[in-house]
Amino acid sequence: MNTKIPLYSQIQDYILQQIEKGHWPAHHQIPPEREIAEQFQVSRITAKNAMMGLVNDGFLYRHRGKGTFVAARNHNKQAKETTAPLFTAMQPSKKMIGFIMPWMEFQYSSLLISGVEAALSQLSYHLLFKRIKGREEESKAIQAFLDIPVDGIIIVACQGEQHFNDDIVKLILNKHHVVLVERTMRDIRTNGVYCNTKEIGTLMVEYLCKQEAKHIGLITYPSLYTIGVSDRINGFQSALVRMGREPLSEQSILSISPSILEELNRDVVPPEIMTFLQDNKELDAIAAVDALLAQYVGMACAKLNLKHIKIICCDQPLFHSDCLFPVAYIDQSPFEMGTIAARMIVDSIENQTEARKHMINPRLIEISQG
User: Fold this and answer.
1) Cα–Cα distance between 289 and 159 in angstroms, integer?
2) What is the pLDDT of residue 340?
3) In this predicted model, what pLDDT tens digit does every residue of 44-65 receive, in sequence order?
4) What HEC string does the chain produce?
5) Is the peptide bond before 222 cis (omega within 30 degrees of 0)?
6) Are 100 and 142 in contact (CB under 8 A)?
7) To 10 degrees, the CA torsion angle through 254, 255, 259, 260?
8) How far is residue 184 CA from its own chain's centroid?
9) Residues 248 and 259: beta-carbon distance below 8 Å
């Protein structure tokens, strides 16, 4: 090993070289953390940090219960840094599906995209992807896909809006093949796949109560940002009452602007999180509504030497150096959600199936601290 290069970077360079040389093609399962650790004579936590860093950058994706795999070529670091469409090489014999998604927590969105791409590839369809910000870009992306044209569109609707874009409603009313992800329509029958977000807050509270947490804080985005965030907050507060506790006061809840989701530099803790922890020194547990917020909380706890705090979050967290890691997380199964959405849209195209909805139940994953 080159001792002048950090072990973390040496592992990542090795993995990327295997990918670039074609030794590990798309969807190839890479060796487990244990083998990587033995090969480089490092701890498993170092190997895991390196692999999760590449997952964060879109080079790899994790499949629950199976391992870590090479992501398709269009899921690279540039995917995180551009709002331009990413097109895979197309063959005339293959059909195309458009996928529209706003800026979201990157680990979650990477797994979601990978699930869609993996399933479509197996079904001999190509994926065209557009990341958008706001309803204007959402409408332009829809029109661009109609102009190509694509055979169907999978949509994660624009965040921060209470009602669907009129252009999405028109797609469905005009009988286009559409699958909605994360949100569904109540009054119009359409295909949709989503997680039961109302249960996420309940799972968090039940776990923290079993851990005998006495003083709990919640770090979130504004409740109106998405229905999912609103469900998590309401579910959390309702679960506290059911467990015989008082709901959290305003002083115990910190709301962060969702604009941090677009920040590419994740090494700087938002100052409001540092201030929140300093002003609430009695806290012994913190729930975060997504993995990015949990990462910032963990970094802040490490800086302030608050190693006693138990952190729980929604979605699989990323490993980060100098970070207090969560004790558990709530898995929404984004890879599975993506594969279901892809199969649903193809089924709609090829078999003209009736619109249906699929709900995924979240589950709590406890993280070994060893």
Assistant:
1) 15
2) 96
3) 777 887 888 787 777 888 776 7
4) CCCCCCHHHHHHHHHHHHHHCCCCCCCCECCCHHHHHHHHCCCHHHHHHHHHHHHHCCCEEEECCCEEEECCCCCCHHHHHCCCCEECCCCCCCEEEEEEEECCCHHHHHHHHHHHHHHHHHCCEEEEEEEECHHHHHHHHHHHHHHCCCCEEEEECCCCCCCCCHHHHHHHHCCCCEEEECCCCCCCCCEEEEECCHHHHHHHHHHHHHCCCCCEEEEECCCCCCHHHHHHHHHHHHHHHHCCCCCCCHHHEEECCHHHHHCCCCCCCCHHHHHHHHHCCCCCEEEECCHHHHHHHHHHHHHCCCCCCEEEEECCCCCCCCCCCCCEEEECCHHHHHHHHHHHHHHHHHHCCCCCEEEECCEEEECCCC
5) no
6) yes
7) 20
8) 18
9) no
CB 89 within 8 A of CB 77: no
- Each residue's pLDDT tens digit, 217-256: 999 999 878 788 888 999 999 999 999 999 999 999 999 9
Tokens of 309: 């705090």
Task: Please answer whether residues 233 and 220 qualify as being in contact, where contact means their C-beta atoms are separated by less than 8 angstroms.
Answer: yes
Q: What is the pLDDT of residues 89-122, one digit of tens each?
A: 344 445 899 999 988 777 888 889 999 999 999 9
Q: d(Cα 232, Cα 103) in Å, to the nearest integer?
A: 19
Residue with tokens 């999180």: 273
Q: What are phi and psi of 192, to 5 degrees?
A: -160, 150
Q: Which residue type sits at 139?
A: S
Helix axes 33-40, 44-56, angle to 10 degrees: 120
Write out the two tokens for 341. Answer: 């959405």
Nearest alpha-carbon partner for 121 in 87, 142, 96: 96
